[in-house]
Amino acid sequence: MLKRELMFQQVIPILETFEKNPLSIYFHLLYYCTYAEITIKICCKNKGEIFVRRRFMLYALLIIGTFLLSACTGQSAQEKIYDHLEKAVTLEDAFREQQQPLVDLENKEQKLYNEIIDLSMDEFDQIKEKSKEAASIVEERREKLKLEKDSIDSAKEEFDKIKPLLDDLDEEQAEAKEVGNELVEVMQKRYDAYQNLYKAYDEALTLDAELYEMLQKEDLTEEQLQKQVESINKKYKEVTKANEEFNKYTEQYNKKKKEFYEALGIEVTYNEEESSNTSEEN
């Protein structure tokens, strides 16, 4: 029985390397358990006892083997990171889907505005009607903007799940970890840029809504109208600047993400839509 006790003393330090190579541990255990059965067979004269102990060792081996093999099928940090990054892309689908509808609504509203300013006060009923229609388009744009923001927020939340996983990368993946941390920084800048864009665009929509409300008043003065139009134009300049900033960081993010995948040894094929996830707001 001394041999069996020694076996467990030898197995214990091997178990400490479980995280690095679980399959190796399994085969080590297979060897030692087989050795123990032989030892028992030699030391024990009672055949029934031999059968019971061998059966016990076999069951123990099967249980340990099942545990270790199931551990091998668990996702690595690298695989989890990839899944979170690609899910973040999917969560931005709603963001991409709002781009063209927003542009179409902007063009439709601009057309109505041009028609309104071409009308005279003798056609005030038409001015009022078209202003109401334009105001409803403003609210449609706001709804699209909200969907866009929800999509960006959800994608960012999913992306943030990679942060703790970067620390779980192997020492051999030090370069990938460094690039991954750079990716996190770029994503944060991109997200902050979008928040600025959203804020500016939402404020511009509020000014648009105020304009169409003013146009429905017969006592509106040219001075009041001009002042409101100037405020709107100024705000849309802010929107354009914020949009350019967001697109800049989006391009940086896509480039850094490719570098990250290359550092991890992951081969990914990108289509044009995925590699250019920018905003078209004006």
What can you tell me about this protein's structure?
The chain is mainly alpha-helical. The chain has ten helices and no strands. It folds into two domains: 2-72; 77-275, YkyA-like (Four Helix Bundle (Hemerythrin (Met), subunit A)). The chain has helices at residues 2-15, 22-43, 47-72, 77-91, 93-117, 124-159, 163-166, 174-214, 222-264, 272-275. Helix 5 packs antiparallel against helix 6 and helix 8 runs antiparallel to helix 9 (222-264). It starts with a helix and ends in a 7-residue tail after the last helix. The model is unreliable at 1-20, 29-47, 49-56, 58-62 and 66-73 (pLDDT under 50).
Outline the fold blueprint:
Layout: H1 2-15, H2 22-43, H3 47-72, H4 77-91, H5 93-117, H6 124-159, H7 163-166, H8 174-214, H9 222-264, H10 272-275
Helix pairs in contact: 1-2, 2-3, 4-6, 5-6, 6-8, 8-9
